[in-house]
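A quick aside before the break. I want you to see a complete sequence-to-structure record at least once, exactly as it would be stored in a machine-readable document. Don't worry about memorizing anything.
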Amino acid sequence: MSRRGGYDVAFYLPYATSIYAPEAGVPPGGAETQIDLVARALARRGMRTAVIVSDAPGLPQAVEGVDIARRPAKTASAGWRLVGKLIELCKIARGIASTRADVFVQRTSSVETGFVGLVAKLKRASFIWSSASDADFEFRILDPRRRNKLAYELGVRLADAIVVQTEHQRQLCESTFGRTPWVIKSLGEPAQPRTETPGAFLWISRLVDYKRPMLYLDLARAIPSAEFKMVGVPSHDDPGLAREVEQAAKAIDNLELLQPRPRPELLRLVDSAVAIVNTAEHEGMPNIFLEGWARGVPALAFSNDPDGVIGAHGLGDCAFGSFDDFANQARYIWSNRTDRSELSARCHRYIVENHGPDVVAAQWAKVVERARGSRRRG
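That is the input. The structure line, written in tokens, reads:
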């Protein structure tokens, strides 16, 4: 779908289909959720906005002023060998070619970064690449294959603008690519402070090695008096890890392993969480932290405090890689879970003052307009 006059900006989000058609597959990750929130915020500002997702039954024409454009669904059997890449390139080209937009945006590091950037340039449109994790600047961690790295780096170098989440990512971008990006904080969707009594720690993420889900199981074993809930989203990159987590969780009486679910149901779990726990080896700004803070739920991080905001604003605790500190912090949070009104107020206030939709959308609109200007000059 493409409106007659075209769009100001189109976000390429092939993995976000289930945001708009919940029956289409497992819920997407924080990167897709974040861009969906940005797209809706830009539409509310009057910007002509679209998202391009993989086609599936049940997709609506538009959501909250954001048009839903379609690209052909991914072919699971094609893989990422040469033939599979060529097929995928054709599908990306079809999805973008059928969407008239001045600016295309792609988020996270992947082979698709190069494909989307190349196709956008062939259409004489501007291209913005948006980082979702510190690992985007060490691509070999995510994919050691040289040809995939080259395709990704091509996209970054083709970008008319780069958007990162934190000052730390700005430094990584400058040292890796020699380019100064725009720093735009992630959008924190407004929410009412939670009213439920905290009942359990909560871990929500994909079941991949660098997210280190087994550390969360170790934490549950270390504190048998506390309750833990875990929503693990299986990944085709590491199906064995999902089975390992499932087997280990059966032997932990104070841990409940839950199936993936749509975002509204996840947010009900967040409302009753003692803390949002993150064990990842590397992160950007976890979207689940923002959703927790908006509801007054603190964070408990094993090693990542993005730009030091957890410590600077008193939004929870970070163990900086020490499991003993991690467990001790969790014990303290659990023992004081019924008297956290001051902490909850700080978390909620931080989101309102630093990640509000109006502020974030205004910064994104500025980047898009600058990119459109570079297209006209070009």
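Two observations worth writing down. The mean pLDDT is 90. Residues 357-377 form the longest helix (21 residues). We'll return to this after the break.
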